[in-house]
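Q: Got a minute? One more chain.
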Amino acid sequence: MEIILKEDVIGLGYKYDIVNVKSGYGRNYLIPTGKAVIASVSAKKELAEILKQKAQKLAKIQADAQAVADKLAEVALTITAKVSNKGTIYGSVNNVQIADELSKLGFDIDRKLITIKDVKTVGSHKALVRLHKAVSVEIPVEVVGEVEAVPVQEEAAPAEVPAEEVAAAEELADEQEVLEAMDAPAEA
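A: Always. Here it is, folded:
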């Protein structure tokens, strides 16, 4: 089924694109929600007219996206994640954390526009940000480990042994020496 998108659909296409989708997806989801219309001959003519009128606006949108991409090209992110003693990350680093880090730097980018596989290891990775259908930029992401502080137990100082127990232990040792001396055969 051929349809014309009325808005950007992640993973499918951008606004005013003509795409082919399965009939059920188009009839049951895209068309009823207003995200697309059937690409009939009249709809295609209407789309051509809209694109002529919006050519300058679309060029400006693309130029703005390119300007943001140029600024993002200079950005390198460092994300700290809790790491076990073996170096594996608890959980993973994904597009949500990257969007948060970019917002801290002053870039308001929707997390849905950021593509990265779930990162489960410490090291260097790349995130792809699609700002426009013709503009995308790769951002280097460095994942650093934050080792959990394991509380070190202090060695307890030897406890003071009461003098009575020391005297009892010495007396017991003296008795054992006497018994051992009695059991020893007499030498003649």
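A: The chain has a mean pLDDT of 82.
Q: Perfect, thanks.
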